[in-house]
């Protein structure tokens, strides 16, 4: 959005589930070199959704996952 150049990189993804938190490290993303905004592809977004749904279903208080 800022006009910076997107480069292949990684980002941190976190979600507060209310009863707990999910943190996913080293998420592959296209990252803006200027502002740091991360854009995920559909496959990565789907994997993150699966991780969050699993943590929610098992009512985990803390889930830390390393992608890649």
Which value, in Å, is the CA radius of gyration?
Answer: 13 Å
Shape: elongated
**Proper CATH architecture:** Roll
Domain tally: 1
Q: Oligomeric state of the chains?
A: single chain
Structural class comes to: alpha+beta
Count helical runs: 1
Number of strands: 4
Q: So what's the CATH class?
A: Alpha Beta
The whole-number mean of residue pLDDT values reads 94
**Distance between the terminal alpha carbons, to the nearest Å?**
27 Å
Give the key terms.
Ubiquitin-like (UB roll), four-stranded mixed β-sheet, single chain, alpha+beta, 1 helix, 68 residues
In short:
The protein is an alpha+beta fold.
Describe this structure in words.
The chain is α+β, with helices and mostly antiparallel strands. The chain has a single domain, classed as Ubiquitin-like (UB roll) (Roll), CATH 3.10.20. The chain has one helix and four strands. Strands 1, 2, 3 and 4 form a four-stranded mixed β-sheet that branches. A hairpin with a 4-residue loop joins strand 1 and strand 2. It is elongated and about 40 Å long. The protein starts with 5 loop residues before the first strand and ends with a strand. The mean pLDDT is 94.
């Amino acid at each position: 959005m800022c006009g910076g150049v997107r480069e292949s990189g990684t980002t941190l993804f976190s979600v507060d589930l209310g009863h707990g938190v999910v943190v996913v490290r080293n998420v592959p993303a296209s990252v803006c070199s200027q502002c740091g905004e991360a854009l995920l592809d559909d496959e990565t977004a789907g994997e993150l959704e699966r991780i969050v749904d699993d943590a929610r279903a098992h009512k985990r208080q803390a889930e830390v996952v390393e992608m890649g």
